[in-house]
Amino acid sequence: MKPNEVYVEIQLLSKHGLSLRRIAAEMGCAVNTVRRHLALKAVPKYERKVKRPSKLAPYEAYLRERQVAAQPNWIPASVLHSEIVERGYQGGLSQLRALMRSLRPTLPVEPVIRFETEMGEQLQVDWVEFRKGSAPLHAFCATMGYSRASYVEFVSDMKVATLIGCHERAFAAFGGVPRKVLYDNMKTVVIERDVYGEGLHRYHAGFLDFAKHSGFRIKLCQPYRAQTKGKVERFNGYLRRSFYVPLASRLGQSGLQLDVITANVEITRWLREVANERVHGTTQEKPAERMAKEVSHLQALAAPWRGDIAAARPQAAAPEPSAPRPAIVIERIAKAAPAQHPLAVYEQLLINVTQGMAA
């Protein structure tokens, strides 16, 4: 019989006038037990004497090891939950979050002012630098202002040709071209701000030509105010915490380094199955579902850009090449020849001289 049932039964027998000894005999317990239950003012609460191990206990060592491998970064509880579920964990996320809070205190979050844009109006673009040195690793990140749908491509450099190629593949992934694209002070986009007056900037000629060809306007965020493109900035942090740190640390535990090819294979699946399918904290909708509505408001894709980036950059004047030797021979023959010779004569002479030099 449960403690609360014992309490109720003893109280009932007492109200019927039975003595303590008679109640003890009826209940099969000691008189002191009857006396203690009658002294209680409420039903006793059941307390488990032996604490059962939590479902998370077998995975705590693994979770701590994963966080140590990721230092100084931090792996979110949602990512670790997916990892231990694959290893057989059947508990909930709340237990895991409680453990994570015990390992690291929650930091206060600064309030952020949100600026919303219309469908197809704006795309925010940024570079994320993960690794320098002999094997650099960067990520091109593009986030649609309305839907929060994102495109990511890992590269080994941040040159303007790479930037343009990433744009073209991002537009193809989104299904069209937005009317505006927002940047910070990328030197591959803007060379000097306000050089022709306030708001009149000197853009990289090659990239400006690409923007006109594709049909979007270049917009720059306010100086020293990266929050102006806060949608892609927040996604960058999410990308680092939920994708890069877990993947790079897992490879690092095996003595491997994340490279461009592996990162792009993994990011394609992550964008499709995780990032664009999660319920966004601001919109409370999935980016993929909002993107399905936004795509009809985008401009049509342009043909691949065929501009010459090298030709678009200012170049120093090259020294004039010395005149080739055949030209001198032709000049001497021309002086001795009558002025009325047709041009075919000179062409044939040039051919003969060229053939003679080749022989």
Give a short synopsis of this structure.
The protein has helices at 3-15, 20-27, 31-39, 60-70, 77-86, 93-103, 160-174, 205-214, 230-253, 260-273, 287-294, 309-312, 325-336, 343-358, and strands at 122-131, 137-144, 150-155, 180-183, 190-192, 202-203, 217-220. It is an alpha/beta fold and 359 residues long.
Q: What features would you describe in this structure?
A:
The chain is α/β, with parallel strands linked by helices. The chain folds into 4 domains: 3-39; 57-103, no CATH class; 122-312, Ribonuclease H-like superfamily/Ribonuclease H (Nucleotidyltransferase, domain 5); 325-358, no CATH class. The protein has 14 helices and 7 strands. The protein has helices at 3-15, 20-27, 31-39, 60-70, 77-86, 93-103, 160-174, 205-214, 230-253, 260-273, 287-294, 309-312, 325-336, 343-358, and strands at 122-131, 137-144, 150-155, 180-183, 190-192, 202-203, 217-220. The strands form 2 sheets. A 5-stranded mixed beta sheet has the order 3-2-1-4-7. A two-stranded antiparallel ribbon has the order 5-6. Helix 5 (77-86) crosses helix 6 (93-103). The radius of gyration is 37 Å and the shape is elongated. 22% of the residues are buried. Mean pLDDT is 81; it is low at 314-343.
